[in-house]
Design goal:
2 copies of one chain form a homodimer. Chain A is mostly helical and 185 residues long. Chain A has 8 helices and 2 strands; from the N terminus they run ααααββαααα. The structure holds a DNA duplex (30 and 30 nucleotides).
DNA sequence: AATTTACGTCAGTCATATTGACTTAATTCT
DNA sequence: AGAATTAAGTCAATATGACTGACGTAAATT
Protein backbone atom coordinates (compact mmCIF):
# COMPACT_ATOMS: atom_id res chain seq x y z
CA UNK A 1 0.00 0.00 0.00
CA UNK A 2 1.99 2.90 -1.26
CA UNK A 3 1.72 5.78 -3.69
CA UNK A 4 -1.85 6.79 -3.89
CA UNK A 5 -3.27 10.09 -4.86
CA UNK A 6 -5.96 11.43 -7.07
CA UNK A 7 -7.29 14.62 -8.47
CA UNK A 8 -10.77 14.69 -9.82
CA UNK A 9 -12.06 11.38 -8.75
CA UNK A 10 -15.51 10.05 -9.19
CA UNK A 11 -16.85 7.05 -7.45
CA UNK A 12 -20.00 5.05 -7.84
CA UNK A 13 -22.82 6.84 -6.18
CA UNK A 14 -21.55 10.08 -7.58
CA UNK A 15 -21.31 8.80 -11.12
CA UNK A 16 -24.35 6.64 -10.86
CA UNK A 17 -22.18 3.95 -12.34
CA UNK A 18 -23.83 0.72 -11.43
CA UNK A 19 -26.41 1.70 -8.92
CA UNK A 20 -24.15 0.68 -6.08
CA UNK A 21 -23.23 3.31 -3.60
CA UNK A 22 -20.02 4.30 -1.85
CA UNK A 23 -18.15 2.42 0.81
CA UNK A 24 -20.12 -0.49 2.11
CA UNK A 25 -21.80 0.57 5.30
CA UNK A 26 -19.58 -0.75 8.00
CA UNK A 27 -19.09 2.50 9.80
CA UNK A 28 -22.50 2.55 11.42
CA UNK A 29 -21.45 0.53 14.42
CA UNK A 30 -18.64 1.43 16.72
CA UNK A 31 -17.13 -2.02 16.46
CA UNK A 32 -15.42 -1.06 13.21
CA UNK A 33 -14.41 2.42 14.16
CA UNK A 34 -10.73 2.22 13.37
CA UNK A 35 -11.64 1.09 9.87
CA UNK A 36 -11.15 4.57 8.50
CA UNK A 37 -7.77 4.79 10.19
CA UNK A 38 -6.57 2.11 7.81
CA UNK A 39 -7.18 4.29 4.82
CA UNK A 40 -6.08 7.51 6.46
CA UNK A 41 -2.81 5.93 7.46
CA UNK A 42 -2.37 4.76 3.92
CA UNK A 43 -2.86 8.17 2.37
CA UNK A 44 -0.99 9.98 5.13
CA UNK A 45 2.05 7.80 4.65
CA UNK A 46 1.88 8.25 0.95
CA UNK A 47 2.06 12.01 1.14
CA UNK A 48 4.61 11.83 3.92
CA UNK A 49 7.03 10.05 1.62
CA UNK A 50 5.99 12.14 -1.35
CA UNK A 51 7.90 15.27 -0.36
CA UNK A 52 11.28 13.54 -0.10
CA UNK A 53 10.61 11.57 -3.26
CA UNK A 54 10.44 14.75 -5.29
CA UNK A 55 13.78 15.99 -4.00
CA UNK A 56 15.43 12.61 -4.37
CA UNK A 57 14.29 12.36 -7.97
CA UNK A 58 16.51 15.34 -8.83
CA UNK A 59 19.51 13.27 -7.83
CA UNK A 60 18.18 10.15 -9.50
CA UNK A 61 17.71 8.62 -6.10
CA UNK A 62 14.75 6.64 -4.86
CA UNK A 63 13.40 5.61 -1.51
CA UNK A 64 16.08 3.03 -1.04
CA UNK A 65 18.67 5.80 -1.12
CA UNK A 66 16.60 7.83 1.30
CA UNK A 67 16.52 5.02 3.82
CA UNK A 68 20.25 4.48 3.66
CA UNK A 69 21.09 8.16 3.81
CA UNK A 70 18.72 8.71 6.69
CA UNK A 71 20.11 5.99 8.91
CA UNK A 72 23.72 6.81 8.13
CA UNK A 73 23.03 10.43 8.95
CA UNK A 74 21.42 9.41 12.21
CA UNK A 75 24.10 6.90 13.11
CA UNK A 76 27.40 8.18 11.82
CA UNK A 77 30.06 5.51 11.80
CA UNK A 78 27.64 2.65 11.51
CA UNK A 79 28.73 -0.58 9.88
CA UNK A 80 27.32 -1.99 6.69
CA UNK A 81 26.09 -4.97 8.69
CA UNK A 82 24.09 -2.71 11.00
CA UNK A 83 22.45 -1.13 8.03
CA UNK A 84 21.57 -4.53 6.62
CA UNK A 85 19.93 -5.51 9.87
CA UNK A 86 17.96 -2.31 10.15
CA UNK A 87 16.80 -2.26 6.58
CA UNK A 88 16.36 -6.01 6.36
CA UNK A 89 17.44 -6.12 2.77
CA UNK A 90 20.11 -8.25 1.20
CA UNK A 91 23.70 -7.27 0.79
CA UNK A 92 23.20 -7.10 -2.94
CA UNK A 93 20.32 -4.68 -2.72
CA UNK A 94 22.16 -2.47 -0.31
CA UNK A 95 25.37 -2.73 -2.29
CA UNK A 96 24.02 -1.07 -5.36
CA UNK A 97 22.28 1.73 -3.53
CA UNK A 98 25.22 2.35 -1.26
CA UNK A 99 27.64 2.44 -4.17
CA UNK A 100 25.50 5.03 -5.91
CA UNK A 101 25.44 7.17 -2.79
CA UNK A 102 29.20 6.89 -2.41
CA UNK A 103 29.75 7.65 -6.10
CA UNK A 104 27.51 10.69 -5.80
CA UNK A 105 29.58 11.93 -2.90
CA UNK A 106 26.81 11.62 -0.36
CA UNK A 107 28.28 8.90 1.79
CA UNK A 108 31.85 8.22 2.78
CA UNK A 109 33.32 4.89 3.84
CA UNK A 110 36.17 4.81 6.31
CA UNK A 111 38.09 1.83 7.48
CA UNK A 112 37.37 0.83 11.06
CA UNK A 113 40.05 1.89 13.51
CA UNK A 114 40.00 -1.27 15.55
CA UNK A 115 38.64 -3.61 12.94
CA UNK A 116 40.05 -3.02 9.51
CA UNK A 117 37.41 -5.19 7.83
CA UNK A 118 34.79 -2.59 8.55
CA UNK A 119 33.79 0.17 6.19
CA UNK A 120 32.19 2.61 8.58
CA UNK A 121 29.64 4.86 7.00
CA UNK A 122 29.43 8.62 7.29
CA UNK A 123 27.50 11.24 5.39
CA UNK A 124 29.66 13.77 3.58
CA UNK A 125 28.93 17.46 3.82
CA UNK A 126 26.76 17.10 0.76
CA UNK A 127 25.04 14.01 2.08
CA UNK A 128 24.42 15.72 5.37
CA UNK A 129 22.82 18.64 3.57
CA UNK A 130 20.55 16.37 1.57
CA UNK A 131 19.58 14.35 4.60
CA UNK A 132 18.75 17.53 6.48
CA UNK A 133 16.65 18.83 3.64
CA UNK A 134 14.67 15.61 3.46
CA UNK A 135 14.18 15.60 7.20
CA UNK A 136 13.13 19.23 7.12
CA UNK A 137 10.40 18.48 4.61
CA UNK A 138 9.04 15.68 6.71
CA UNK A 139 9.20 17.79 9.85
CA UNK A 140 7.26 20.55 8.17
CA UNK A 141 4.52 18.11 7.28
CA UNK A 142 4.47 16.63 10.76
CA UNK A 143 4.32 20.01 12.39
CA UNK A 144 1.52 21.07 10.13
CA UNK A 145 -0.35 17.91 11.03
CA UNK A 146 -0.01 18.67 14.73
CA UNK A 147 -1.58 22.11 14.44
CA UNK A 148 -4.88 22.51 16.21
CA UNK A 149 -4.65 19.27 18.12
CA UNK A 150 -5.28 19.28 21.86
CA UNK A 151 -2.41 19.55 24.32
CA UNK A 152 -0.42 16.40 24.70
CA UNK A 153 -1.38 15.12 21.28
CA UNK A 154 2.19 14.79 20.14
CA UNK A 155 2.93 12.45 23.00
CA UNK A 156 -0.27 10.52 22.28
CA UNK A 157 0.71 10.09 18.67
CA UNK A 158 4.21 9.06 19.63
CA UNK A 159 2.77 6.43 21.91
CA UNK A 160 0.33 5.30 19.25
CA UNK A 161 3.02 4.90 16.63
CA UNK A 162 5.23 2.99 19.01
CA UNK A 163 2.39 0.63 19.83
CA UNK A 164 1.80 0.06 16.14
CA UNK A 165 5.24 -1.48 15.97
CA UNK A 166 5.74 -5.19 16.59
CA UNK A 167 6.33 -5.63 20.33
CA UNK A 168 9.58 -7.52 19.74
CA UNK A 169 11.02 -4.68 17.75
CA UNK A 170 10.01 -1.84 20.04
CA UNK A 171 13.01 -1.92 22.32
CA UNK A 172 15.44 -1.86 19.41
CA UNK A 173 13.58 0.94 17.73
CA UNK A 174 13.41 2.98 20.88
CA UNK A 175 17.14 2.64 21.26
CA UNK A 176 17.54 3.71 17.67
CA UNK A 177 15.18 6.61 17.91
CA UNK A 178 16.28 7.83 21.32
CA UNK A 179 13.32 10.12 21.39
CA UNK A 180 11.91 12.26 24.09
CA UNK A 181 10.29 9.20 25.58
CA UNK A 182 13.01 8.88 28.17
CA UNK A 183 12.99 12.56 28.91
CA UNK A 184 9.34 12.58 29.66
CA UNK A 185 9.18 9.56 31.85
CA UNK B 1 11.15 4.25 3.25
CA UNK B 2 9.55 0.85 3.52
CA UNK B 3 10.27 -2.57 4.90
CA UNK B 4 12.45 -2.18 7.87
CA UNK B 5 12.93 -4.52 10.74
CA UNK B 6 15.76 -6.03 12.65
CA UNK B 7 16.48 -8.61 15.22
CA UNK B 8 19.72 -8.47 17.04
CA UNK B 9 21.00 -5.17 15.94
CA UNK B 10 24.12 -3.50 17.11
CA UNK B 11 24.92 0.08 16.47
CA UNK B 12 28.02 2.15 16.97
CA UNK B 13 28.22 3.14 20.57
CA UNK B 14 27.09 -0.29 21.59
CA UNK B 15 29.64 -2.10 19.46
CA UNK B 16 32.31 0.44 19.97
CA UNK B 17 32.71 0.32 16.25
CA UNK B 18 34.29 3.56 15.34
CA UNK B 19 34.11 5.56 18.48
CA UNK B 20 31.13 7.51 17.23
CA UNK B 21 27.99 7.30 19.26
CA UNK B 22 24.32 6.81 18.41
CA UNK B 23 21.95 9.25 16.75
CA UNK B 24 23.48 12.66 16.44
CA UNK B 25 22.22 14.77 19.27
CA UNK B 26 19.41 16.75 17.80
CA UNK B 27 16.79 15.82 20.34
CA UNK B 28 18.05 18.08 23.08
CA UNK B 29 16.11 21.11 21.94
CA UNK B 30 12.38 21.20 21.43
CA UNK B 31 12.74 22.69 17.95
CA UNK B 32 13.34 19.23 16.51
CA UNK B 33 10.87 17.33 18.61
CA UNK B 34 8.92 15.64 15.86
CA UNK B 35 12.17 14.24 14.56
CA UNK B 36 11.53 10.93 16.22
CA UNK B 37 8.05 10.81 14.74
CA UNK B 38 9.68 10.44 11.35
CA UNK B 39 11.27 7.18 12.30
CA UNK B 40 8.36 5.94 14.36
CA UNK B 41 6.00 6.54 11.46
CA UNK B 42 8.37 4.67 9.25
CA UNK B 43 8.56 1.59 11.44
CA UNK B 44 4.89 1.73 12.36
CA UNK B 45 3.85 1.75 8.74
CA UNK B 46 6.21 -1.05 7.98
CA UNK B 47 4.69 -3.36 10.54
CA UNK B 48 1.22 -2.18 9.65
CA UNK B 49 1.65 -3.47 6.12
CA UNK B 50 3.60 -6.49 7.29
CA UNK B 51 0.60 -8.44 8.57
CA UNK B 52 -1.30 -8.33 5.28
CA UNK B 53 1.87 -9.01 3.32
CA UNK B 54 2.25 -12.38 5.00
CA UNK B 55 -1.28 -13.44 4.12
CA UNK B 56 -1.06 -12.10 0.60
CA UNK B 57 2.13 -14.04 0.00
CA UNK B 58 0.20 -17.29 0.36
CA UNK B 59 -1.83 -16.31 -2.68
CA UNK B 60 1.20 -15.01 -4.54
CA UNK B 61 -0.18 -11.53 -4.20
CA UNK B 62 1.69 -8.39 -3.27
CA UNK B 63 0.76 -4.97 -2.05
CA UNK B 64 -0.52 -3.92 -5.41
CA UNK B 65 -3.15 -6.64 -5.15
CA UNK B 66 -3.99 -5.54 -1.64
CA UNK B 67 -4.62 -1.98 -2.73
CA UNK B 68 -6.90 -3.05 -5.55
CA UNK B 69 -8.78 -5.59 -3.49
CA UNK B 70 -9.21 -3.12 -0.65
CA UNK B 71 -10.70 -0.35 -2.71
CA UNK B 72 -12.94 -2.65 -4.69
CA UNK B 73 -14.18 -4.16 -1.45
CA UNK B 74 -14.85 -0.71 -0.08
CA UNK B 75 -16.47 0.57 -3.25
CA UNK B 76 -18.33 -2.27 -4.86
CA UNK B 77 -19.27 -1.52 -8.43
CA UNK B 78 -16.49 0.95 -8.98
CA UNK B 79 -15.13 1.53 -12.46
CA UNK B 80 -11.61 0.72 -13.59
CA UNK B 81 -11.13 4.41 -14.22
CA UNK B 82 -11.97 5.24 -10.61
CA UNK B 83 -9.43 2.77 -9.43
CA UNK B 84 -6.81 4.27 -11.71
CA UNK B 85 -7.47 7.71 -10.28
CA UNK B 86 -7.32 6.54 -6.71
CA UNK B 87 -4.21 4.47 -7.11
CA UNK B 88 -2.58 6.85 -9.53
CA UNK B 89 -0.96 4.09 -11.46
CA UNK B 90 -1.10 3.43 -15.15
CA UNK B 91 -3.63 1.29 -16.90
CA UNK B 92 -0.93 -1.22 -17.68
CA UNK B 93 0.17 -1.61 -14.11
CA UNK B 94 -3.37 -1.99 -12.91
CA UNK B 95 -4.23 -4.30 -15.77
CA UNK B 96 -1.83 -7.01 -14.77
CA UNK B 97 -2.72 -6.96 -11.10
CA UNK B 98 -6.43 -6.80 -11.80
CA UNK B 99 -6.21 -9.69 -14.22
CA UNK B 100 -4.46 -11.81 -11.62
CA UNK B 101 -7.15 -11.00 -9.09
CA UNK B 102 -9.87 -11.87 -11.56
CA UNK B 103 -8.11 -15.09 -12.58
CA UNK B 104 -7.75 -16.03 -8.94
CA UNK B 105 -11.47 -15.55 -8.47
CA UNK B 106 -11.12 -12.65 -6.07
CA UNK B 107 -12.65 -9.95 -8.21
CA UNK B 108 -15.52 -10.07 -10.63
CA UNK B 109 -16.14 -7.74 -13.54
CA UNK B 110 -19.70 -6.98 -14.59
CA UNK B 111 -20.81 -4.95 -17.52
CA UNK B 112 -22.32 -1.60 -16.58
CA UNK B 113 -26.11 -1.56 -16.73
CA UNK B 114 -26.41 1.86 -18.29
CA UNK B 115 -22.99 2.04 -19.89
CA UNK B 116 -21.91 -1.19 -21.48
CA UNK B 117 -18.31 -0.03 -21.86
CA UNK B 118 -17.81 -0.26 -18.16
CA UNK B 119 -16.45 -3.31 -16.33
CA UNK B 120 -17.71 -2.63 -12.86
CA UNK B 121 -15.65 -4.26 -10.17
CA UNK B 122 -16.91 -6.38 -7.33
CA UNK B 123 -15.21 -8.69 -4.90
CA UNK B 124 -16.33 -12.31 -5.11
CA UNK B 125 -17.22 -14.24 -2.00
CA UNK B 126 -13.63 -15.37 -1.85
CA UNK B 127 -12.29 -11.88 -2.49
CA UNK B 128 -14.57 -10.48 0.16
CA UNK B 129 -13.26 -13.04 2.63
CA UNK B 130 -9.66 -12.20 1.87
CA UNK B 131 -10.30 -8.47 2.05
CA UNK B 132 -12.00 -8.91 5.40
CA UNK B 133 -9.15 -10.96 6.74
CA UNK B 134 -6.61 -8.35 5.71
CA UNK B 135 -8.69 -5.59 7.21
CA UNK B 136 -9.14 -7.58 10.38
CA UNK B 137 -5.40 -7.90 10.81
CA UNK B 138 -4.89 -4.20 10.40
CA UNK B 139 -7.74 -3.42 12.77
CA UNK B 140 -6.26 -5.66 15.41
CA UNK B 141 -3.00 -3.81 15.16
CA UNK B 142 -4.71 -0.43 15.27
CA UNK B 143 -6.81 -1.39 18.26
CA UNK B 144 -3.79 -2.68 20.08
CA UNK B 145 -2.03 0.59 19.36
CA UNK B 146 -4.91 2.57 20.83
CA UNK B 147 -4.82 0.76 24.15
CA UNK B 148 -3.85 2.85 27.12
CA UNK B 149 -4.13 6.16 25.32
CA UNK B 150 -6.11 8.95 26.92
CA UNK B 151 -9.76 9.51 26.04
CA UNK B 152 -10.31 11.10 22.67
CA UNK B 153 -7.00 9.86 21.33
CA UNK B 154 -8.58 8.05 18.44
CA UNK B 155 -10.13 11.26 17.23
CA UNK B 156 -6.83 13.08 17.72
CA UNK B 157 -5.03 10.49 15.64
CA UNK B 158 -7.69 10.63 12.97
CA UNK B 159 -7.26 14.37 12.79
CA UNK B 160 -3.51 14.05 12.74
CA UNK B 161 -3.53 11.58 9.90
CA UNK B 162 -5.92 13.69 7.90
CA UNK B 163 -3.70 16.72 8.35
CA UNK B 164 -0.72 14.71 7.16
CA UNK B 165 -2.45 14.39 3.81
CA UNK B 166 -1.95 17.01 1.12
CA UNK B 167 -4.60 19.69 1.63
CA UNK B 168 -5.82 19.37 -1.97
CA UNK B 169 -6.49 15.69 -1.55
CA UNK B 170 -8.22 15.83 1.81
CA UNK B 171 -11.72 16.44 0.56
CA UNK B 172 -11.54 13.56 -1.89
CA UNK B 173 -10.14 11.24 0.70
CA UNK B 174 -12.73 12.20 3.25
CA UNK B 175 -15.43 11.41 0.73
CA UNK B 176 -13.77 8.10 0.08
CA UNK B 177 -13.28 7.23 3.69
CA UNK B 178 -16.65 8.43 4.93
CA UNK B 179 -15.45 8.04 8.44
CA UNK B 180 -16.89 9.05 11.72
CA UNK B 181 -15.71 12.57 11.05
CA UNK B 182 -19.15 13.63 9.93
CA UNK B 183 -20.81 11.78 12.74
CA UNK B 184 -18.77 13.51 15.35
CA UNK B 185 -18.08 16.94 13.88
C1' DA C 1 -21.18 12.45 -37.75
C1' DA C 2 -17.47 13.62 -34.85
C1' DT C 3 -15.59 13.43 -30.48
C1' DT C 4 -14.84 11.67 -26.15
C1' DT C 5 -14.77 8.04 -22.79
C1' DA C 6 -13.94 3.29 -20.90
C1' DC C 7 -11.26 -0.32 -21.33
C1' DG C 8 -7.77 -3.26 -23.05
C1' DT C 9 -3.34 -4.36 -25.13
C1' DC C 10 1.49 -4.35 -27.20
C1' DA C 11 6.33 -3.48 -26.54
C1' DG C 12 10.04 -1.94 -24.04
C1' DT C 13 12.18 -0.01 -19.77
C1' DC C 14 13.36 0.92 -14.91
C1' DA C 15 13.98 0.55 -9.75
C1' DT C 16 14.11 -2.20 -6.07
C1' DA C 17 14.09 -6.10 -4.33
C1' DT C 18 15.06 -11.35 -4.16
C1' DT C 19 18.17 -16.11 -3.72
C1' DG C 20 22.34 -18.59 -3.61
C1' DA C 21 27.05 -19.12 -4.17
C1' DC C 22 31.59 -17.50 -3.80
C1' DT C 23 35.87 -14.51 -2.56
C1' DT C 24 38.90 -11.76 0.33
C1' DA C 25 40.61 -10.01 4.35
C1' DA C 26 40.67 -9.63 9.16
C1' DT C 27 39.47 -10.99 13.65
C1' DT C 28 38.43 -14.22 17.21
C1' DC C 29 38.23 -18.72 19.26
C1' DT C 30 40.27 -23.05 20.78
C1' DA D 1 49.14 -21.68 15.27
C1' DG D 2 45.31 -23.25 12.92
C1' DA D 3 40.28 -23.22 12.50
C1' DA D 4 36.21 -20.82 12.53
C1' DT D 5 33.73 -16.78 12.20
C1' DT D 6 32.74 -12.17 10.71
C1' DA D 7 32.68 -7.96 7.51
C1' DA D 8 32.30 -6.72 3.20
C1' DG D 9 31.98 -7.26 -1.59
C1' DT D 10 30.76 -9.67 -5.91
C1' DC D 11 28.53 -12.64 -9.60
C1' DA D 12 24.43 -14.35 -11.98
C1' DA D 13 19.76 -14.95 -12.51
C1' DT D 14 15.04 -13.65 -11.28
C1' DA D 15 10.63 -11.20 -9.67
C1' DT D 16 7.52 -7.41 -8.70
C1' DG D 17 5.55 -3.31 -9.46
C1' DA D 18 5.91 0.42 -11.51
C1' DC D 19 6.79 3.43 -15.94
C1' DT D 20 6.08 5.56 -21.17
C1' DG D 21 3.86 5.81 -25.41
C1' DA D 22 1.15 4.17 -28.86
C1' DC D 23 -2.77 1.83 -30.67
C1' DG D 24 -7.50 -0.41 -30.99
C1' DT D 25 -12.40 -1.04 -30.09
C1' DA D 26 -16.78 -0.39 -28.51
C1' DA D 27 -20.06 2.62 -26.64
C1' DA D 28 -21.70 6.96 -25.22
C1' DT D 29 -22.06 11.94 -25.66
C1' DT D 30 -22.12 16.26 -28.17
Amino acid sequence: MTDVNFKTMSLPGQTGAGGTSGPSDQSSDDASLPYDLIELLFFAYRDFTGDPDDVLAKFDFGRAHHRVLHFVERNPGMMVTDLLNILRITKQSLGRVLKQLVDAGMIEQREGLHDRRQRLLYTTEQGHALAEELTRLQKVRLERALIGLPNGSEETIRQFLLQMIDPDARADILALVRSSFDLKG
